[in-house]
Amino acid sequence: MAEKYKKQDISRASRLSVAPMMDWTDRHCRYLHRLLSRETLLFTEMVTAPALVRGGAVHLLGYNPEEHPVALQLGGSDPQELAEAARLGAEAGYDQIDLNCGCPSDRVQSGTFGAVLMKSPDLVADCVAAMREAVDIEVTVKCRLGVDEQEPRDTLPAFLEKVSATGCRRVVIHARKAWLQGLSPKENRDIPPLDYDLVHQMKAAFPHLHVSLNGGVETLAEAEALLAAGLDGVMIGRAAYHRPWEILAGADERIYGRAAPVSDPEDIARAMLPYIERHLSDGGRLHQVTRHMLGLFAGRPGARGWRRVLSEQATRDGAGPEVVEAALERLTEAA
Ligand SMILES: Cc1cc2nc3c(=O)[nH]c(=O)nc-3n(C[C@H](O)[C@H](O)[C@H](O)COP(=O)(O)O)c2cc1C
């Protein structure tokens, strides 16, 4: 059994977190990220409460014990259903439960959850209160600055006021609005402008809240600067996924003052091999794991060859660890 994290550990861990990303931060990705950083808080992809509670899809809660500290992100808008989903998550051993109030996709909008909840702070408060009542681990909220025509300088403080009145002590703010009409989910991660100042203002207005900033953070140096400027945490999504070595391997030392667990990305690739063997012997496919490893050598000599071997060969029937060995050879040749 993995050691259970205490509340204060999670608060510390959330100085840096890897964002929840559908189809990306699955259990294989998180296993890889955990090899790179022992300290960083990892998030699952969003799991919808209806899928868990009505659909009985509890397999979506599967994770590797090595992943702790790990937060389960839930999507939904029915307080009782979310409470039940949170209970299932806590029972499965997650360290924190997060409510998604930031995802703009159509599918999610149709179920009245995600970013559209920014328009219903009372409902969000009911959801968070019901979830908090159901579990004894921390319940957090990941939100946007606002949506559509909202004026975030007015609506975001009102939203946070309601959320914090439930006893919720930690939020992640994606520092841009979501425009629910006319933009794709991808465009909604790039086009609405970032406003870091407003997140700083929210920290000043709600000093008791643990506030993490998310959105557009590209380097550890930027994360360090945001922490030094008074924020409690920084969440990184795409940069951590595409450049995991650069973002995560230095995190333990620079963000947490602990020794870095590894000094060479090649060691990480090799450390994935026993995990890959296990996955294959459980009936999984190589590509399901290696697709998350494509960026491991980003910016290093041979990175392109590494990526090419993995992307061309890992999807073939019967592909196994020898593909990773072959990809590593490309790096040695390049060096
Ligand atoms: C492929 C992808 C999937 C995402 N899925 C989710 C999700 O399930 N839940 C969520 O709250 N945000 C999701 N996001 C948004 C990220 O969590 C994050 O807020 C966003 O990418 C901005 O951070 P970044 O600029 O560091 O990437 C997703 C982003 C990407 C790129």
UniProtKB/TrEMBL annotation:
HAMAP family: DusA_subfam. Residues 18-329 form the DUS-like FMN-binding domain. It is an enzyme of class 1 (oxidoreductase). Belongs to the dus family. The active site is at 103 (proton donor). PANTHER family: FMN-LINKED OXIDOREDUCTASES SUPERFAMILY PROTEIN (PTHR42907:SF1). The record marks 100, 186, 189, 304, 307 as: Interacts with tRNA. Its EC number is 1.3.1.91. It holds the Pfam family Dus. GO terms for molecular function: flavin adenine dinucleotide binding; FMN binding; tRNA binding; tRNA-dihydrouridine20 synthase activity; tRNA-dihydrouridine20a synthase activity. Keywords: Flavoprotein, FMN, NADP, Nucleotide-binding, Oxidoreductase, RNA-binding, tRNA processing, tRNA-binding. InterPro entries: Aldolase_TIM, DUS-like_FMN-bd, DUS_fam, DusA, tRNA_hU_synthase_CS. Catalyzes the synthesis of 5,6-dihydrouridine (D), a modified base found in the D-loop of most tRNAs, via the reduction of the C5-C6 double bond in target uridines. Specifically modifies U20 and U20a in tRNAs. It comes from Salipiger profundus. This is tRNA-dihydrouridine(20/20a) synthase. PROSITE patterns: UPF0034. It comes from the Bacteria. The gene is dusA. FMN binds at residues 20-22, 73, 142, 174, 214-216, 237-238. Transmembrane segments: none annotated.
